[in-house]
Design brief:
about 110 residues, alpha/beta, Rossmann fold, three-stranded parallel sheet, 3 strands
Length: about 110
Amino acid sequence: MRGGFEVLEAASARDALETVERQRPAAAVVDLKLADGMTGPGLAETLGQRGIPVVVTKGYAPAHLDGLERWPVLVKPFDPEALVAALRSAIGDGPATPAYRQASGTSPVGG
């Protein structure tokens, strides 16, 4: 357990989709860039359609979010506390904390 969450890992978007078929997670952390052909926003959209809250991570901070506004976004590097806060916010288990707001530079969905 990390931050009160049990962590399931997937090496690719395909693995992630197979994992959620076997065990439904409370939320998912999806990187913007994926190596296996599916985009991070594509995976996030698919998971969202299945009712799984998503937090997106990315390695750069452009001036705009390019359609990512619907998900909490964390720019790397970020503190583990910010990730836990973003996950809690995404699943509706608490407000965004200052650590999340500072790391993301954005407000969470619904926040």
